[in-house]
Amino acid sequence: MKVLIVFAHPEPGSLNAALRDVAVAALQEAGHEVQVSDLYAMGWKAAVDHADFPALAAQSRLKVAAASHEAFTQDSLTADVKAEQDKLRWADTLILQFPLWWYTMPAILKGWVDRVYAYGFAYGVGEHSDRYWGNRFGEGTMAGKRAMLIVTAGGWAEHYGERGVNGPIDDLLFPINHGILFYPGYTVLPPFVSYRVDRFDEARFNQTAQALRERMRTLETTPPIAFRRQNGGDYVIPTLELKPDLEAGGTQGFALHVTPAA
């Protein structure tokens, strides 16, 4: 298996970096090929701007989606973006690893998504009609590939529980798992989340490292999150609303978009 880890932490001596090294070693020991995009070490440009579209006339108004589509179609995206797209094509599994900052990913990782997920590459593909609404949410460029998150959080696990003050961790990560990974077609595995990371001692690290090694060894067999496929019959097209008969049982919010366990 070929695995791409997109890593977003500025400190080479961080806990995140140590966990990344554990993951890489475990994957390689299992016979997998691994590439790492270390965004801070790469000096990744996070902000989308006119410079991302060299073929766009300097005086032209920047409409990002249109410019992205034209640049992708004409193979005129910048070299750094095309290199990351090639890595995504190469990889069977994508891992996004980051600390949870202000309830989401660091800006540099969001900028990687903004620039690499070009129109025509990760979105804007497939038929749009009154019966089918594009290759997305379970279909698309990345269909047949797996993806997951490795996340560290400073708060307690209870802070991210069903009644925790921060909200459930699955809800906080839903925009990433569903909107960034599932959208272009990835089969999304449950995230690996470590809590109270600012209080780690050697024993806690060793315990977490062992659990992470096990997750890496089972990437190919771990059951995925059962997100509902957009074109699988659960949604009304073209409004893309979940069919009323599927809302029974009191489920609300993001959980509506996950098929209930049998």
UniProtKB/TrEMBL annotation:
It comes from the Bacteria. Pfam families: Flavodoxin_2. Gene3D superfamilies: 3.40.50.360. InterPro entries: Flavodoxin_fold, Flavoprotein-like_sf, NAD(P)H_dehydrogenase_qn. Signal peptide: none annotated. The keyword Flavoprotein does not apply. Residues 1-214 form the Flavodoxin-like fold domain. PANTHER family: NAD P H OXIDOREDUCTASE-RELATED, NAD(P)H DEHYDROGENASE [QUINONE] 1 ISOFORM 1. Belongs to the NAD(P)H dehydrogenase (quinone) family. This is NAD(P)H dehydrogenase (Quinone). The lineage of its organism: Bacteria, Pseudomonadati, Pseudomonadota, Betaproteobacteria, Neisseriales.
